[in-house]
Amino acid sequence: MTIPPSDPAAFLRQLFQAGLDAVSADTILPRLLTPEALPRPKGRTLVIAAGKGAAAMAAVAERAWGEAPQSDGPLSGLAVTRYHHGQDLRRITLVEAAHPTPDAAGMKAAAQALDLAAALTPDDLLLCLLSGGGSALMVAPAPGVTLADKQALTKALLRSGAAIGEINTVRKHLSRFKGGRLAAVSQAPVVTLAVSDVPGDDPGTIASGPTVPDATTLADARAVLARYGIEPAPSIRAALDDLANETPKPGSLPHARYTLAATPIQALEAAAQVARAAGVTPLVLGDDLEGEAAEVAKVHAGIARGCLRHGQPLPRPCVLLSGGETSVTVRGQGRGGRNAEFLLALAVALKGDPVWALACDTDGIDGTEDNAGALLTPDTLARAQALGIDAAAHLANNDGYGFFQALGDLVVTGPTRTNVNDFRALYIP
User: Fold this and answer.
1) What are the residues facing 322 on neighbouring strands?
2) What value does the mean pLDDT take over residues 386-404?
3) Calpha distance 111→264 (Å, rounded)
4) DSSP 359-420
5) Fewer CB within 10 A of the end CB, N or C, for the chain?
């Protein structure tokens, strides 16, 4: 008889680490960058990397070109990542910029990337390495739109509860870089290798799809703002009414090829494999769950109670795994990302039931905080009450960070340099 894990918290951290390892740049990229998988061009190779995993992905590309037995041309480029997510690069220039609200460093980098891509010839290769966060890190406002306008709009969208696909629909139509426009300026063949951080793994949503045609429209972008009651600056309203800002449509970029290098399901499947090896039955609820974090938590709580009380849908010991990107409609003044919000709502819903849980963002940053997420234990509410902390009040104030910080249950990993979005695990012993 297999003995289930004796340390539930360590077990949950082990599952999370297994997921991270499965989607790291060192794991996923080498096989895609061999000369056989990606023939070297007659001319030069320009790497444009954007996202929280950009530096790690660029480093693997440098090694692949250096290790190639017959590399036909030089490799250079630009990698733009979040502040403190960089690492040493030899041939590719590293730029760090702000996320999730863009800044001047990201705007300068995007302009430089467009210029570099536009200078390529048909004998060259544009290699794009994309990961989550690229939308904010590469900001190239449409004509007439200022950086301040885009910063204000980004903040409003992030607080509105809009889904990431909706947010990126707006971003694409206010950009000279996103929505296929980077590929459109290049005469060289374009090869994109992407790490998906979005529900459904839609290439048009990952980093706002700078190298793929865009099926959304200006009208769709205007509808998103109307849906969430966002009144943008006059310059943004004018840009969304200007047909010149419509994105390249399907069929318009035949020189661009796209490959998903890593997806959220890979992280969940890796965690499930570790669970099975420990004698714990896993159930992957889905890799693309969306909706309000607190509401998603209630659904997870209901499934966990079914396992506890009825052995359905799984007998114990078991672990429920899920991914995707929830949202939070911010109404309070507290601190915390969507994973802390999920766990706090889960604690309130479970009311001390014997369930352990971990919810973390795979990039190591939950929202804009310094933690990846947090841990929930069966005595979370009891420990909070002993400290005079009201879980429901913290939830109403969107203060998941403050709640779990007080209990010492934040999960802090630092930058992971990958990103396949949220990772949630509920362990029922």
Assistant:
1) 286, 424
2) 97
3) 30
4) EEETTS-STTSS-SEEEE-TTHHHHHHHTT--HHHHHHTT-HHHHHHHHT-EE-----S---
5) N
Strand, helix or coil at 332? coil
Instruction: Give tens-digit pLDDT for 366-385.
Output: 988 999 999 999 999 999 99
Cβ atoms of residues 269 and 203 within 8 Å: no
Ramachandran assignment for 386, one of left (phi > 0), alpha (psi -120 to 50 degrees), beta (any other) = alpha
State the Cα–Cα distance between residues 90 and 399, nearest whole angstrom.
42
Residue 242 confidence (pLDDT) above 80: yes
pLDDT for 148-190, tens place per residue?
999 999 999 988 989 888 999 999 999 999 999 999 999 999 9
C-alpha span between 113 and 46 (Å, rounded): 10
Element (H, E) at 54: helix 54-67
Structure tokens at 382: 């009891």
Q: Count other Cβ atoms within 10 Å, centred on residue 354.
A: 15
* Four-point Cα dihedral 84, 402, 346, 5, nearest 10: 70
Q: What is the predicted pLDDT for the residue at 66?
A: 87
Element spanning 128, H or E: strand 125-130
